[in-house]
Amino acid sequence: QVQLVESGGGLVQAGGSLRLSCTASGRTFSSYAMGWFRQAPGLEREIVAGISRFGTNIYYADSVKGRFTISRDNAKNTVYLQMNSLKPEDTAVYYCATAKTSYGGRLSNVDSWGQGTQVTVSS
């Protein structure tokens, strides 16, 4: 089992930026794909972005393409989500996740979740 700790959430005005970080421990970081999901109140959890083990393949949800960037640093056991041009509809709890496999960067069969970090975008 891997432990995931997210950080970097907060309150930002529309049009602003935030960078989320997720640091993993307990397993070889480069052995699994990483991703970010989010869940807004009353809605189901949805995938935001995913990245394969060595960053070769990356996936973005249509709603964040061109605004968000996922990256990973295997030497630091950390995955990042740079969020630019934030909109009020991006408000949600953001979760980091791992999976043994991914297809085009999209995670398959998530096996670990972080505790989540709140992102609030004011209009």
What do you see in this structure?
- The chain is an all-beta fold.
- It contains no helices and eleven strands.
- Strands 2, 4, 5, 6, 9, 10 and 11 form a seven-stranded mixed beta sheet that branches.
- It is globular and about 40 Å long.
Report the uncertain regions.
Answer: none
Helical content class = under 10%
Number of helices: 0
Please tally the β strands and state the result. Answer: 11
User: N- to C-terminal separation?
Assistant: 39 Å
**Shape designation:** globular
The biggest beta sheet is recorded as: 7 strands, mixed
Run of helices and strands: EEEEEEEEEEE
Mean pLDDT over the full residue set: 96
Q: Give the DSSP E fraction (strand runs of 2 or more residues).
A: over 45%
> By helix and strand content, what is the structural category?
mainly beta
Rg, Cα atoms, Å:
13 Å
Which descriptors would you attach to this protein?
123 residues, mainly beta, seven-stranded mixed β-sheet, four-stranded antiparallel β-sheet, 0% helix, 58% strand
